[in-house]
Write a structure and sequence with these properties.
The chain is an alpha+beta fold. 41% of the residues lie in helices and 11% in strands. Strands 1, 2, 3, 4, 5, 6, 7 and 8 form an 8-stranded mixed beta sheet that branches. β1 and β2 form a beta hairpin. The longest helix is centred in the first third of the chain and has 16 residues.
Length: 365
């Protein structure tokens, strides 16, 4: 289908557009999800809770975020409390949620709001975007939901609803500006935050990726994709390019009931997180080259290779790690930049999921 034809179809579906925001809000008032960060009807949203949830929800499901959100607000009930914490504590609390640059940016943002804004979030998109870790979507979401600014954030759920409603033929990510423009037509004159959350809920519960429940949708009579019977083909997406497999080795060294660990560099993948010593992760790396990067300790027993490999998939590449284990003598000093930690306290360390897998494999847990 040509872009001209697609635009004509989009225009043909806008005749009833003034009714759509009202239909969405009426549906939302009946079916809104109860979420720990969402204000109850008639209550004012807390910018801190909105911001915290939006950062956590990036690349992560609502189900996974819930327990982490509750832990964070229990320990740090407002942005000032979070801004006075240590980054290490924040990383420990975040461990397991993934995409760890979010945690570092979360902490940096809390520090900035605390020190430079007196613990009060800016209320405009422009002001919010000037904060660490807040991009265009997050700024729009906070501005709309927390401050009722008339703007429409577009997350994956909204992207899907809009692309189906208007049958946007252009592939993502090139279609994003067009979808953003069309999504803005669904804003009510007031209750901007509720308009955005209505679309989010619609995408999460009705306009789902597979088998959407179109008969329950408040916009079903006005949906171009439904009229065509092509709902599940939207949004159009370009084929994903997966990175080359990377390989490496991880070294699980114990000293009695202690484990040898180190912290990763602050910048880069898994920045600042805790890990066991390991080799570089490279495409085509063989086991012999990886093993040569083992840590050197006096009186270490022979390295034992564990059967099997640990696999993990990052956003841009899959990873395979061979795991070697060894035992150190009592009172063996940790090499520079490393430390011994009690195995019993590992749950409190800022271990990313890939390292939890490695340690479980190495210790036979």
């Amino acid at each position: 289908m040509s872009s001209t034809t697609a635009r004509k179809k989009e225009r043909s579906t806008t005749a009833n557009s003034p009714a759509r925001p009202a239909l969405l809000l009426a549906w939302y008032d009946r079916h809104r999800r109860r979420l720990p960060w969402r204000a109850a009807p008639g209550e004012t949203s807390d910018p801190y809770r909105v911001w915290l949830s939006e950062i956590m929800l990036q690349q992560t499901t609502v189900k996974a975020v819930g327990p982490y959100f509750e832990k964070f607000v229990e320990r740090w009930p407002d942005v000032t409390a979070l801004g006075r914490a240590s980054q290490d504590d924040v990383l420990r609390m975040w461990a397991g949620l993934g995409y760890y640059s979010r945690a570092r940016n979360l902490y940096a943002c809390a520090v900035t709001v605390t020190r430079e804004h007196g613990g009060v979030f800016p209320s405009t998109e422009e002001g919010l975007r000037a904060l660490p870790g807040i991009g265009p979507y997050t700024a729009a979401a906070i501005a709309a939901i927390a401050f009722d600014r008339r703007t429409m954030p577009v997350d994956g759920n909204i992207e899907r609803v809009v692309s189906r409603l208007f049958a946007v033929e252009e592939e993502l990510p090139q279609a994003k500006p067009r979808i953003q423009q069309l999504a803005a037509t669904l804003l009510a004159d007031s209750r901007a935050g509720d308009s955005a959350q209505a679309l989010m809920d619609l995408g999460a519960s009705i306009c789902t990726p597979k088998k959407p429940a179109c008969s329950l949708c408040p916009l079903n009579e006005d949906c171009t994709a439904r009229a065509q019977g092509t709902q599940e083909t939207f949004p159009r997406k370009a084929p994903k390019k997966s990175g080359a497999l990377r390989r490496g080795a991880a070294f699980v060294v114990t000293r009695g009931d202690e484990l040898l660990v180190r912290s990763r560099p602050e910048k880069g993948l898994l920045g600042g997180m805790t890990e066991v010593p390991g080799s570089d992760w490279r495409a085509g790396q063989d086991d012999a080259a990886a093993k040569q990067q083992a840590p050197e300790l006096k009186g270490l027993s022979r390295w034992q290779r564990k059967v099997g490999v640990v696999t993990h998939v990052f956003t841009h590449f899959p990873l395979e790690l061979v795991v070697y284990t060894a035992q150190a003598e009592a009172r063996t000093r940790a090499p520079e930049g490393m430390r011994w930690v009690p195995i019993a306290t590992l749950a409190g360390e800022a271990l990313p999921n890939v390292m939890r897998k490695v340690i479980a494999h190495g210790l036979g847990l």
